[in-house]
Amino acid sequence: MANKYINKAFTLTTTNAVSIYTVPSETVAIVKVVQGFNDTASAVTVTMAFTDTSATTDYNIGYTSSSIVEQFSLLTDDLLVLEESDVLKLTASAANQVTGVASILEQDRT
């Protein structure tokens, strides 16, 4: 079982849900932290959710961060474990204001 640490950068260019990470096949992913930065002069709210593909259901995780001008925010309070094919998604209240990175540990199950 190999471990691989990765960073997934993102830019939220729409007010629709944006898939920022999909767990590869035969892998479990542990999301350590999701960091966002609002680099504009307007406030924005970012909501995090994930798709549990084994249940074909989207779940709002409840981590929501309202940020003000040029504010850096942690969007996670604790670890999040995702299984094969699960999808991590972010939704912003305004487009083209938030960039960031998710730090993830992937554990290969083969």
Please characterize this protein's 3D structure.
It is a single chain. The protein has a single domain, classed as Nucleoplasmin core domain (Jelly Rolls, Sandwich), CATH 2.60.120. The protein is built from no helices and 9 strands. The protein is globular, with a radius of gyration of 14 Å. The termini are close together.
SSE string: EEEEEEEEE
Number of helical elements: 0
Number of individual domains: 1
Average pLDDT confidence is: 88
Q: Give the end-to-end Cα distance, rounded to a whole number of Å.
A: 6 Å
CATH class: Mainly Beta
- Strand segment count: 9
**CATH A-level architecture:** Sandwich
Rg from Cα:
14 Å
Largest sheet: 5 strands, antiparallel
So what's the overall shape?
A: globular
List segments where confidence is low: pLDDT < 50 over at least 5 consecutive residues. Answer: none
How is the CATH topology named? Answer: Jelly Rolls
Indicate the proportion of strand residues: over 45%
- Structural class based on helices, strands and sheet pairing: mainly beta
Question: What is the helix content?
Answer: under 10%
The CATH homologous superfamily is termed Nucleoplasmin core domain
Concise summary:
This protein has 110 residues and is an all-beta fold. It contains no helices and nine strands. The protein has a single domain, classed as Nucleoplasmin core domain (Jelly Rolls, Sandwich).
